[in-house]
What does this fold into?
Amino acid sequence: MCPMQYFIEYNLGQRSPSNKKADKGTIVHKVMEILAFIKLNQQNNNRYFEDDIIGPVDITNYNLDNITERVYKYYTSQFTHHKWTDRDFKDCDKWVYKTIDYADGMFDPRNREIVEPEQHFDITIDKPWAKYSYDTKEGHLEGQLSIKGTIDLITKVNDDTYEVIDWKTGRRLDWATGEEKTLKKLHNDPQLMLYYYAVSKLYPDIKHIMVSINFINDGGMFSVNFGEPNIFQVEMMLKKKFEDIKNSQNPKLNKSWKCTKLCHFGKNTYEGSEHLPIVEYREDQLTTMGENMTICEQIKHDISIKGMDNVIDQYQAPGYNIGHYKAPGSAE
Ligand code: SF4
It folds into this structure.
């Protein structure tokens, strides 16, 4: 949505605090993950498995409400920057049932043949354009671009067909444009195309891959079939993004009404942090003259004066590693 927001989050490692709605989505996702593991263990004739949050699960004797409650307790004890209320628990509980009851239980993981819950991927793009080479404080760094992510669930429809299932608890909106995602638009949705790309690389023998996304609270399930031509389309999309990022010397500020409402770096300054805030001395900026610059304006200001490398040295979060992948649901 905004090149500067990307730079601050992914190059400087200054992450904005999660929002409550997204954290409630994480809770629902975790319950779906546990249900998928229950089914997977049933398929594999295992009676027990160990979940990283709720501990041992007996697949012949579990209680869904109890699972939701324990998952909720875990995340609310981790995400302490929100004020959690009974209403939040009721929402999570309701969304869990909405998800598993949808279309007579068609997308309840327990009614599916599970291939892999929470499929992690880390795929190296073996193309000449995907090479990178940088000089860093730690020395010379070079390699190939790789894409990392986690897919909610992969299920088997038949021997030739897998279905990717993704759950969304938020609105069916493209947040960059504010427009509703229609089925037609989902055919060009970067996230869904990337999932298709990843699954086609992870499971090269599978002929057909469907990608289904369930907007639990905004329209239900949308299924998209991708095919061979989408592989090239994804690679061209990645190439463009990769080159844009590599060639960026001073990331743009994408200013809109969202800056002061939704963006942590537009709502806050460095006051009270380990970085000294700079008082605005120029005209026509987001901040009025005499006030502290917002975080993104200060970074933009410093890049134009000191250059990107110096700003990374000065502002990068201690211990941050640019190659580190934070899996969804991780409370780190
Ligand atoms: S406040 Fe606006 S311009 Fe600044 S980083 Fe956020 S989205 Fe970008």
